[in-house]
Design goal:
single chain; 120 residues; mainly alpha; 54% helix; three-stranded antiparallel beta sheet
Length: 120
């Protein structure tokens, strides 16, 4: 009995499709939607220049830095954890699907020449 690699590759597409809403939720929860600094960073002993923001697209990060050296991360850690879990799942499923496909092809080629001879 051979196992089809198709379900593994379908799982890769499902995982990558799930990545999109998870990413968008992380962006919205982290207030990364191009809002002014005053709206994004909560008021807190603003210095002359106010807080500055650093952000990253992957992994998701939107951090407010204040003049006193403190900072606050606005993106929940669960958002990045979920993104990495989804990507790890996609990579694992891709690897398993590739392994099954190669194994099936190898079995077909070795079984094709063995045990199929007729004796006279």
């Amino acid at each position: 009995m051979t196992v089809s690699p198709r379900p593994f590759f379908v799982g890769v597409y499902v995982a990558l499709f799930a990545f999109i809403p998870a990413y968008l939720i992380g962006v919205s929860r982290g207030n990364m939607l191009w809002r002014p600094v005053g709206e994004v960073c909560p008021d807190r002993a603003l210095a002359d220049h106010g807080p500055r923001i650093t952000d990253s697209v992957f992994p998701l990060s939107n951090r407010c830095h204040w003049q006193d050296g403190t900072s606050t991360e606005l993106v929940p850690t669960s958002a990045n954890a979920l993104l990495f879990i989804i990507l790890a799942l996609a990579v694992t499923l891709f690897g398993l699907g590739t392994w099954v496909a190669v194994r099936n092809r190898t079995r077909r080629s070795t079984l094709g020449g063995l045990g199929h001879t007729t004796s006279t």
